[in-house]
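Throughout our pipeline, every protein is held as a single compact record rather than as scattered files. Nothing more is needed to write down the fold, since each code stands for a local backbone conformation. The record that follows is passed on verbatim for readers who wish to inspect the format.
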Amino acid sequence: MKKILTLIGLFGSLICANAQTNSNSPFPLAGTWTLKAAQVLLADGSYAVDTAYGKNAKGILMIDGNGQYSLQIFRPERPKFASGNKTQGTAEEYRSSLLGISTHVGHIKLDPVNNTLQFNIDYAAFPNWDNTSQNRKFRLSGDELYYEVPVKSATGTSAVSVWTRVKIQ
């Protein structure tokens, strides 16, 4: 049994390593990425912590060779539900829970000429994003991906995500 589990683990590692480092992949962002920073770009050009996720924001972005993706960003300090049951939360518990996450799945299109990513969102935790497309300015520098959400006209700010590609050792 131990040998079988070892073989399964080795096979899984090889598949992950191939998905994350295959230079023949048709999509240059293919791989697993971890969140390095969730920030807000202020109107004056400076950066601040995105208060929706806090200074210890956690996240993962997984993209396959065809651009299909799954993205999750979490505020780790979200309060637990006092009832211990997600169907019996208070209004504030539900509010904190939803506002402390960003998660969506779909396909990404890359436009390297205009330095934009287009997230074609199939489903999202925020249902208003289901079946929508959103564009982001981006930079890719080695194994670091930086992108900005379009500026909010009311505040003049833009949400920024910085991701680091996971490398298999």
About this structure: The CA atoms of residues 61 and 74 lie 12 Å apart.
